[in-house]
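Review session, final week

We close the course with one last complete record, chosen because it touches almost every idea we covered. It is PhnD/SsuA/transferrin family substrate-binding protein, a protein from Candidatus Nephthysia bennettiae with 269 residues. Go through it on your own first, then we will talk.
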Amino acid sequence: MPRRPGRELVFATYLAPCIRPVYEFVAHQVGKELGCAGRLVTGESFQQLRDGEVDFAFLCGLPYVRLRREAQPPVEAIAAPVVRGERYGGRPIYFSDVIVSRENPAGSFRDLRGCSWAYNEPDSHSGYLVTLFSLFCSGETGAFFGRAVMTGFHQESIRRVGVGQVDASAVDSQVLSVELRDHPELAGRIRVIDTLGPSSIQPLVATMACSDSLRRQVQEVVTALGTNEAGRARLDEGLVDRFVAVDDSCYGDIRAMLDSVEGARLRLD
């Protein structure tokens, strides 16, 4: 049931902590523009989206397409960020950058056979699904790697590669750029040897707790952010240029990758 208008709109983030300042800004500005409080919480489970415990969420594309498969999809994509940088071409896309330590001689993803591999979590598109899809396209399986280790976050995958605990990882290109900006010493420890993608970037979704009218209002507010200097500065904390309107059809690429990987029964252990 749609949530009736009240004093507070609850946004949840299921994404990398280093981008959280952008999501906090979005939640605050939406509340300000709509005359109510906007609060950001850390998402604890996807069941919160089904139960309508939150109104909007910043969600990875992989769980998004999985949730959209349900008989009564609990979420709908309404907006997505455009990341700053020439490689993004002004589109709501991102990449998975394959990183190794500076000392690692590998020159591309295909050189990593038998290496140890870090991934953030199995509900991640950029850290997990796109890796499996790349293996699928090459006729490989998860056994391509010597071992695979789950780290919990992209930042932790980056750290482990940098200190030599694992050989390589594929990480969200936006997260990697923010980490390199905020921790410039990382540039002396890691390097990018390959890029997987592009893929449609993580959407801001509305849950069924929201009326159609509220979804449209929030979409309008979010896509207008960054039109002033103060707003641009806040978005730039996450290297975001602006948000643009998206819908479910924008995530067909991730849906196709998931279908291929599931059909081949690929996984990382």
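Two points worth writing down before the exam:
Residues 30 and 135 are 41 Å apart (CA to CA).
Residues 93-199 form a domain with the D-Maltodextrin-Binding Protein; domain 2 fold (CATH 3.40.190.10).
Good luck, everyone.
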